Each structure stands twice: as C-alpha cells, then as structure tokens.
Amino acid sequence: MISNSEVASHLYELAKLTTLAEGNSNAFRVRAYETAARTIDGLVEPVAEMTAEQLTALRGVGPSTASKIRQLIDTGTIERLEELRSRFPPEFVELTTVPGIGPKTAVMLRDELGVTGVGGLRAALESHTLRELPGFGAKTEENILAALERLGVGGKQRRTPIIEAMRVAGDVCNALSQVPGVRLAEPMGSLRRFRETTGDVDVIVVSTGDPEAVMARFVEMPVVREVVGYGARKSAIVSASGLQIDVRVVEPHQYGSAAMYFTGSKAHNIRLRQMAIDRGWILNEYALAEADGGAVIASRTEQEVYAALGLPWISPEIREDAGEIEAALAGSLPDLVEEKHLRGDLHVHTSLSGDARDSLPTMVAAVAARGYRYCAITDHGEDLAINGASRQQLLAQRRSIQRLQVKHPDLVILQGLELNIGRGGSIDYDAEFLVGFGFGVASVHSHFGLSADQQTARVIAAMENPAVNVIGHLTGRRIGKRPGIDLDIGAILTAAERTGCALEINSHLDRLDAPAEVLRAAADRRGVVFAISTDAHDAGELANAAWGVRHARRGWVPKDRVVNTWAPARFLKWVEKKRRG
Ligand code: DGT
Ligand code: CA
Ligand code: CA
Ligand code: ZN
C-alpha cells in the first residue's frame, strides 16, 4: 500500500513540474498541489484507503487532485505526472534552478541552442553562443556563469539538495521498515552526516529475515525510474528525479561496523582504518577484527567499535576528518546540542503573516504541546509588503496573546516580530512602536545582489538595533536554488560578539542558514550565541527543530551557547539586556 508520504512526494513533484509547464500563469494550481501534499503528509489515516469523496474533504484537495491521487493509488502512477516527467527530465529541471534561468528561458535554450542541462549551459556560456539570443548579452553571460559557480551545480556529479534527498530517503526507509524481519532501515552516507547536498542516498537495512524480500520491495517502489543494480544484499535504483539510492542489507551483529563504514565520510573512515592497522587489526563494513585469521573485536554497535579504537562515539554530523578525531583523542569534543535540550522556539509565524497557514491560538497550542517553556511569535513587519502585518493588526494580536497567556501559564509567550532588513540596514516601524514588543528577529528578504561590503554593513546595522535579538537566516540562501548574500563573515562574527545579537540556526531543510561552515567559525568565537529556530509557517513545521539541531551539530555548536536551551529566567534576562541597548 502506498504511504501518505509517497503520495505527498508525487504531489510535490507535480507542483514543481506544473510550474515549469505553465509558469506563473497557473500559480493557483501549483499552490493547490502543495497544500494537498502538506495536508496528506501530516495525516495519520492512510489516504490509500480513502474514497474520492473522503479525499475531496481534505484541505487543499479538489476533485481534480482527488482523481489524480486515486489514479496513483490504483495504478501506481499519475498520467499527467508521467507526461510532465517526459517533457521535463531531471537534467532540464536542474537547469531551471540556476538563478537567471527561469522556465521560459530554459525552454528557449533547449529550442534555440539544444541546451538540455547544466553541462550544456556551461558549454554555451564558455563558447559565448548565449549572447546571440534575444534578451541576452555579455553581461547576462557573466552573471549566469557567476551564479553557476556560487550554486555549485553542474559539476561532474549532480548533487541533490537535502530537502529532496531526505524526503526520498524517508519514503524508502518507511517502506522497507515494513518488510517482515526488518528491524531497522536508516539513511547513511552524506545524508546521515547532514551535508546540505547529497550525491547519492545510502540506506542500510538490518534484517533477521530474507534479504531478498527487502530488495523485492525496494525495486517495486513508485519512486523507482530505473534499477541499476540488483543483488540479494545490495541493490541500487535511480529515482524519478534522477537521484541514485543504494540499499544494503546487513545482519544485526554487523550493524555498528556497517553504519560506520557507510556513514563515512571517506576521510574519517581512512583515519579510523589507519588507527586499526596501527594496532594490527583491520576495519571494514563487516567488523573490526584481528588482521591474521580474523577474530572479531567489535562490530555490533558504533560505540563498541569506537571504544575498541580508544575513542568516544563521534556524532555522525562531524565525521569529516576536520579535527574531530584529534578532539576525540584529546577528550575535547564539544558538548553538542540535542533536541531534548530545546526549551523554546524563537521564530514562529501565524496567519497574520501572508505566507503562514495556522492561527495564533493553533500555533501557541502546538508550541505548548511540545513542552516548551517560552516562545516568540514573530510575524512579518509591515515593510514586507504582501506578507507583513499592520500596526493595528499587531496591537490586536498583543491583546490576543495576553488572553492566551492566561490559558498557558507554563509557557512564556513573547510578542516578537520578524523585521525586514532594508537596503541600508533599516528595519520596520520606529523605535517607539518597537519598544512595545518583547522580541525581534531581523532578516534579509531582498537586495540579494549587493556587494559584500554593503551586505555586511546592513546586517551589522540591524544587529546594533536594540529591537533585534536574533539575525534570521543569515545568508538568505535556498539550498540548490538561490545562493546566499555575500558577507564578510569575520566582521559579522565580531559584531555578534560585540552586540550580543544571536545568530539564527534556521531549521528549514530548504535553508539550514547560517551554513555549517559559518556556524563552525562562530562556535570558535566564544562570545557568539545562537538560536535554533524553525521559522514555522504552520504547526507541523515546529517539528523541523530536529533538523536545526542536526545542522547545529554539524557546525560544532555546543549546547550552552544556544540561547533557547537556557532556563527561562536566564533566557529572559538575555532578551531584556539586548533590548535595553
Ligand atoms: P555523497 O554521496 O557524494 O553525498 O557522499 P557520501 O559520503 O555519501 O559518499 P558515498 O555515497 O560515495 O559513500 C558512502 C560512504 O561509504 C562514504 O561516506 C564512506 C564509505 N566509502 C565509500 N567509498 C569508500 C572508500 O573508498 N573507502 C572507505 N574507507 N570508505 C568508503
Ligand atoms: Ca552517498
Ligand atoms: Ca553511495
Ligand atoms: Zn520567518
């Protein structure tokens, strides 16, 4: 039976390809597919068991979407989607993620120059054939080439943004978990290390049953476009979107060594293998064992294998041979933040923001249900034209929050704002109005093309403003879709130390912003503090905090530097100190 999450994946793909086919002319239909996908993803009851009538009762599902969902359940595919897939193969879709190349341009490049992917685009740029097209010139060529470099797409190997890889991996692991005998199915490789892009997805399955039953289920999944390898314990497929997925089935007693091997990174593994060799042992995916004849020393759990090598367990997110082995040997690994440490969410939208979907009472109830002790409601300020809230709306919200506060005595609800950093570093409203709020996040939402000096200056100006407690999604990037703004990170970190303004760790898989390398540099500055926030636009997105935590770990961020792990009294004191200026 097809899972809700698999149905949702198909609808997301339908939305993406419909945008390519129809541009903004049918934004309504695209949004409808996305809403339907989100609804179904959050549903407990299996949609595969629903009638067309029950389906249309779901939020965002009209008769036409309902019939597509039924078609998917009954036939394993959607005709319209198949048609779009053949019109827009993965290489072509990737082409449209390059800034400056919209769907219309991509179609023109294909028709006029035969460019079908990023490789072809690069060749056309280098031979200067692009500038011959109407609407193009030398300057456009230069801009697109620069964007290609910054995005990092179109190298030898295609890399998939984590948001998409995580979704596909989740679908595969859920499906394989249900095969009889399977104890565990988990993503390994770069995805487990939480890299922001993935070359291919590696999954290991621990099974006490027939491994071939796992493989049979795997290659029949609706996501499969092509089976590229088939064996009893090792198979590989390529998904509809062009992502390769490798699955290996291992015995329970090999889990530790297999997980370590397939998690990598390769550089981390090589260091460990050398440590084994130095002791006269060998280390591979099957075990840590004596070199001669092979008595097994450890293999069942990762902890046992690391311990036999004289190391504490090292968290997957930092297994990059970037200092973690030295730190482990010296006993100086950072005390990394965990999800259970979080006591609040400091970037939460309500339906007062034009792009958010749940009401204030719904969001507050959902925050309280997570067991948090405090939160900041941060709707967009008025400068963000379509999505922002007016002064009057915010004053009304303040009264609603006061009433809700009585209903939730264990949760401190701060009325905050997500302020928009203007071109020169200004923010919404005036100081007098801003004093009425208890919290502020300030973020860049426009002017992405300014120079590094200008960007750095505007962000620092916002940090210095007493109404600003946190800089939201520092670079404004969308992974694989939009490069972040150019910044002098050293200067930003110095300003963060001086002003006490926290750096947000935005938990959305599309953002994961500030990037991990910035977090690592920031973690090295003792005076910089962090806020792990979801930027939730509906109640379901509050759960993204788990991703933010893993991203923070990848940046070596220690628990005690994350302000929303602090006890309420300490946290509120920190908030107030900044706001007093
Ligand atoms: P990716 O797929 O490019 O995003 O990156 P990974 O790290 O997932 O790399 P992948 O899929 O080639 O291999 C998965 C893991 O398998 C890798 O992290 C470590 C392990 N591995 C692969 N090749 C080697 C190797 O030659 N030596 C060792 N020691 N480990 C390897
Ligand atoms: Ca991989
Ligand atoms: Ca692989
Ligand atoms: Zn936001």
Layout of strands and helices, then pairs:
Layout: H1 4-22, H2 27-41, H3 52-56, H4 63-75, H5 79-87, H6 90-95, H7 103-113, H8 118-126, H9 138-151, E1 160-161, H10 162-177, E2 182-187, H11 189-192, E3 197-198, E4 201-207, H12 211-219, E5 224-229, E6 234-239, E7 244-250, H13 255-263, H14 266-278, E8 281-283, E9 288-290, E10 296-298, H15 302-308, H16 324-330, E11 344-348, H17 360-369, E12 374-380, H18 391-407, E13 412-420, H19 431-434, E14 441-443, H20 452-464, E15 470-471, H21 489-499, E16 502-506, H22 516-523, E17 530-533, H23 545-554, H24 568-580
Helix pairs in contact: 1-2, 1-5, 13-15, 20-21
Bound molecules: 2'-deoxyguanosine-5'-triphosphate, calcium ion (2 copies) and zinc ion (ZN).
Zinc ion is lined by residues 347, 349, 418, 535.
Q: Biggest sheet: strands side by side, in what order? A: 11-12-13-14-15-16-17
Q: What's the CATH superfamily of the largest domain, by name?
A: Metal-dependent hydrolases
Profile the largest sheet: 7 strands, parallel
CATH fold category name of the largest domain: TIM Barrel
Distance between the termini: 58 Å
Give unreliable regions as ranges: none
Using the CA coordinates, give the radius of gyration. 25 Å
